[in-house]
Design goal:
- By secondary structure, this protein is of the alpha+beta class.
- The chain folds into two domains: 182 residues, no CATH class; 146 residues, no CATH class.
- It contains ten helices and 13 strands.
- Strands 1, 2, 3, 4, 5, 6, 8 and 9 form an eight-stranded mixed sheet that branches.
- A hairpin with a 2-residue loop joins strand 10 and strand 11.
- Helix 1 crosses helix 2, helix 1 runs parallel beside helix 5 and helix 7 packs parallel to helix 8.
- It is globular and about 70 Å long.
């Protein structure tokens, strides 16, 4: 049985919370858990869970023309990684006044974040534009959490939860508003924004940073499958050598790669859909927004520091970490084992707004 993944679980919970916030201006924990209990993970193997949160709900600001809200939820997650956190399993847990893992604390943090977060402020601003104009409209909010679909994009699509908004005048044809979705990239106490193969990842960074890496083709064997114990041992040693060489190249070029580093990081975090990051933790919600990133790009000069196994990109002024690169190497424990070789791009505390 696969291990519960709280990040996957929070994708579904955030989608539910988002719908409740749009419909009622707040997230009621009891109502959120009631909806969780209706979602059976087994259904994700063949389809999705869909429900109308509210239908034809009238909303109005002062004497402005009233609007009619429809809020729909659609959820499809990886069943193996969320089993126990939804459906009948959750119902049994809640009867004993408990929840699974750290989910209860993270729900509390999500609810509290509606008071000050960028994600909630953005939603409230969008809703207020409808309520404060002089047109009575029928508005449909379709919230879709599809943790499976994003994996087929090759990493270019970062959103885990999409909010589609449609509006029409009474008797009119439904038309999209803003001409795009509002995408959210969900995390749960994770700093990883890119999990790459060592060879391709290091090559991609070298190209993105325009590093003059002579004879990089000598590492191309890393792209081949190692079968024998000797080949595996050689491969892991070669990764370490390649990473050490990349570290030196980046450090030597640190005065010229500022803009290129920001370009690479922007694509890794926000993807082609420009999804803002919402990291739901046990005590708070942290965010990385396009707006704040562009502020950093304009005002923060990067410095490079080689620190043990890390290549750190620091705020040159206050020395906070903006992002870092590292390898994760776990040689096979036995002759027939495969081991683990990964190359990570992770964000630091200095990136958050």
């Amino acid at each position: 049985m696969a291990k519960l993944n709280e990040g996957d679980v929070m994708e579904g919970i955030f989608a539910i919370g988002l719908c409740l916030y749009i419909a009622y201006g707040k997230i009621d924990k009891r109502q959120l858990n009631k909806l969780r209990a209706k979602i059976e993970p087994a259904m994700f193997s063949t389809g999705k869970f869909s429900v109308k949160i509210v239908k034809n709900l009238q909303r109005q600001h002062g004497k402005k023309p009233p609007d009619v809200f429809n809020v729909n939820l659609s959820v499809r997650l990886k069943p193996a990684s969320v089993t126990g956190a939804f459906g009948k399993d959750l119902s049994m847990l809640l009867k004993t006044c408990s929840d699974i893992g750290n989910i209860d604390k993270k729900i509390d943090a999500l609810i509290k974040s509606t008071e000050t977060s960028s994600w909630a402020g953005n939603i409230k601003s969008t809703i207020d534009k409808f309520l404060n104009n002089n047109v009575g409209e029928i508005i449909t909010f379709e919230c879709i959490a599809d943790g499976i679909a994003g994996e087929t994009s090759g990493g270019k699509i970062k959103s885990d939860v999409d909010l589609n908004i449609y509006a029409s005048k009474a008797g009119g044809t439904r038309k999209p508003v803003l001409k795009h979705v509002i995408p959210f990239s969900l995390k749960s106490e994770s700093v990883t924004v890119a999990n790459m193969s060592p060879y391709n990842g290091m090559k991609d960074i070298a190209e993105a940073f325009d590093l003059k890496w002579k004879k990089v083709e000598k590492y191309k064997k890393l792209g081949e499958t190692a079968r024998t114990p000797a080949e595996k041992k050689y491969k892991f040693a070669l990764i370490e050598t390649m990473y050490a060489e990349l570290s030196k190249l980046i450090f030597a070029s640190k005065s010229t790669i500022n803009d290129k580093a920001y370009d690479f990081l922007f694509a890794a975090i926000f993807g082609s859909d420009l999804a803002n990051v919402v990291d739901i933790q046990r005590k708070k919600v942290k965010e990385i927004t396009v707006h704040h990133f562009n502020f950093l790009r304009k005002h923060v000069i990067l410095d490079v520091q080689l620190s043990g196994a890390y290549i750190k990109f620091l705020n040159k002024q206050d020395r906070s970490t903006i992002f870092l690169l590292r390898t994760k190497l776990r040689p096979p424990p036995a002759a027939n084992g495969s081991g683990e070789a990964k190359f990570y791009l992770e964000v630091g505390q200095g990136i958050y707004g």
